[in-house]
Write a structure and sequence with these properties.
Layout lengths: L4 E5 L6 H15 L6 E5 L5 H7 L5 E5 L16 H7 L3 E4 L2 H7 L3 H13 L3 E6 L3 H5 L3 H12 L5 H4 L3 E4 L13 H18 L2 H6 L1 E4 L8 H5 L6 E4 L6 H8 L4
Helix pairs in contact: 1-2, 1-12, 5-7, 7-9
Length: 251
Amino acid sequence: MRRYILAGNWKMHKDAKEAVELVKALIPLVKENKEVDVVVGPPFISIPAVVDAVQGTNIDVAAQNCYWEDSGAFTGEVAPPMLKSSGVKYVIIGHSERRQFFGETDATINKKALALYKHGLVPIICCGELLEEREADKMEQVIETQIRGCLKNLPADKMRETVVAYEPVWAIGTGKVASPAQAQEVHALIRGLLEDLYDKDLAQAVRIQYGGSVKPDNVKELMGQTDIDGALVGGAALKADDFAKIVNFQK
């Protein structure tokens, strides 16, 4: 039985003071929930303060990106060992906004995953198609290309703990959401690709999140799908009450 993982990607919102206020408001709302993994993803600059604030709670912290080298002349980048030392557990890589605005590719996402494994960090690897790709009946091709490229040569023992996030680009921040059936179709596709790349046992173990305008009023139906194991939440994660309702969808 896969354990649900509900993660909030705060994107470029909340300074350190606001980030601590948000997570402190969230803590009492989710502290009784022992059935799911709860993750918050603040901006880099707020990570140390948020890590301190969640000490001793059931909330883990994710970074929103990383670089694949341990150190060096890479101005503006943050290395996996830096994130590890800051108390981060998860790192989101390959988000569509990183692909769209910063030129990330399946190959660079793959390098980041390998670098994260080296330092005991858990990647949340994102994939998803554009609206025009879906309308052109290229969804399956796009997802397969991304999954095979991002997961190339990732060792099975590490992949088992990795999280995959399916985020249809057309549903991110738009208010549109894939229907539960649409989301399940792609999650099942991804699980099938994992079986092809590894084996059935591993494919059944990997957690696959859905992301794209997840809200308190649609989370329960989405999470009820066979192959959906959690959510990567954007806007609704910026309000403690809303994100708590998503985390506590089983209550």
